[in-house]
């Protein structure tokens, strides 16, 4: 966890340079039907944005879209309180009221983080694997645009130049992912910053060239049929819950 903080000027520069859409698709339309109509990355029930305080200052100077996050259960309280003093958890008004130019770096980058091999520098984009069963993009890395990858890499290099502890934090995140995938005996998929795809060999951490077709799909996104069944089941459960509420409170 970072013990320093990038400057206000750095965050302004990052926001100005990192605006590319992740794909030509609105990926939120794929996950929202399974998340009560909200994209996974835009719901604090799924993912709570964490920012450095200087980034929050930049955003607050431009918009009233953001406010400090208010925990709603024990798990969210733990996330909001287990932070370094330079960071805080925040929340926006939701996807329907998004101001794309005023998104946080975390919003712009999700579901990816900079991947560092055991020895070496930032080689590409890995994803936050705990969201793999909920985020459509993680099962369709082929849709990620090259201009998104380029702007992602430029943004994080700007951050690392001003805050070396952030580089170390992502080295540790990368190491944590290697441990998890080694236990699972699965390769880590990486979008290469210079083009193409890479696969991280479980156990050794070796980087190999890969094809996107080799990468695993997850949860309801393993096939079109699985997705249709998951959406139907979610809609049926929501309808049943609404019926119960009407019975209890007519």
Structural class: alpha+beta
Mean pLDDT rating: 92
| Overall structural domain count | 1
Helix content: 40-55%
What is the end-to-end distance? 50 Å
Largest sheet: 5 strands, antiparallel
Instruction: Give the H and E element order.
Output: HHEHEHEHEEHHEEEH
Can you tell me about this structure?
By secondary structure, this protein is of the alpha+beta class. It has one domain. The chain is 40% helix and 12% strand. The strands form two sheets. Strands 4-5-6-7-8 form a five-stranded antiparallel β-sheet, with helices on both faces. The chain has a three-stranded antiparallel β-sheet with strand order 1-3-2. Strand 7 and strand 8 form a beta hairpin. The longest helix is centred in the last third of the chain and has 25 residues. It is globular, with a radius of gyration of 19 Å. The mean pLDDT is 92.
Structural features:
alpha+beta, five-stranded antiparallel sheet, three-stranded antiparallel sheet, 8 helices, 12% strand
How do the helices and strands line up, and which of them pair or pack?
Layout: H1 8-17, H2 28-31, E1 50-52, H3 53-62, E2 67-68, H4 74-81, E3 87-91, H5 105-109, E4 112-115, E5 124-127, H6 146-162, H7 164-184, E6 188-192, E7 197-200, E8 207-210, H8 224-248
Antiparallel strand pairs: 1-3, 2-3, 4-5, 5-6, 6-7, 7-8
Helix pairs in contact: 1-6, 6-7
